[in-house]
Amino acid sequence: FFYGLWLKYDALPERYNWHLKKCEYALYPLRPEFAEATYLLYQATHHPFYLHVGEKIYNSIQTYNKAKCGYATLNSVLSKKQEDRMESFFLSETCKYLLPSVLTLTIPSINEVILFL
Prior knowledge:
By secondary structure, the protein is mainly alpha-helical.
């Protein structure tokens, strides 16, 4: 179900009402849990689907969260409006779990690795 939410919003809203099937708090502060779960599921199963999910997460973050000097929290997953902040856990956790997914898909040049960070 979380991947379905990701496909719908290109991010995970901070709070989603499962009963009403409605986003109640649209903030996305680049939390690592979905990327971490995807990475761990791939490590456990080696199923290529999880690499696909990791690539989708990465591409969405590159499209909607990339800012001039880093990555920005989304104020709203609906409007994709960015806030002028990046939580510290993005670099220490989210990127840690996404980078292996991206590296498994292709072997990037050093410039691509630096641009990811």
